[in-house]
Design brief:
Layout (H helix, E strand, L loop, with lengths): L1 H25 L4 H16 L34
Helix pairs in contact: 1-2
């Protein structure tokens, strides 16, 4: 949970900065950054779709390609 709170804080500051840039460049209201920041932090903390959870699906082991007999040379070359 500590990593998630740290990530939420970083998203909050990043969105606040982006909102400040939108305020300066596009002339939007000053509270746009605060609203975007708090919303993004709340989504990170709440994780409503469990997309950020630590549960992972098992990954199947890689399989070796099958080698057929026609791919192998019938005799090894002899040294001269």
């Amino acid at each position: 949970m500590g990593k998630r709170l740290l990530a939420a804080g970083l998203w909050l500051f990043a969105a606040l900065y982006a909102g400040s840039m939108l305020h300066e460049v596009a002339g939007l209201h000053e509270l746009v950054g605060l609203v975007i920041g708090l919303t993004s932090a709340a989504v990170i903390v709440a994780d409503p779709f469990h997309r950020l959870s630590t549960a992972r699906l098992p990954v199947p082991a890689p399989s070796e390609p099958e080698i057929e007999s026609r791919d192998l040379p019938s005799e090894l070359p002899k040294a001269a």
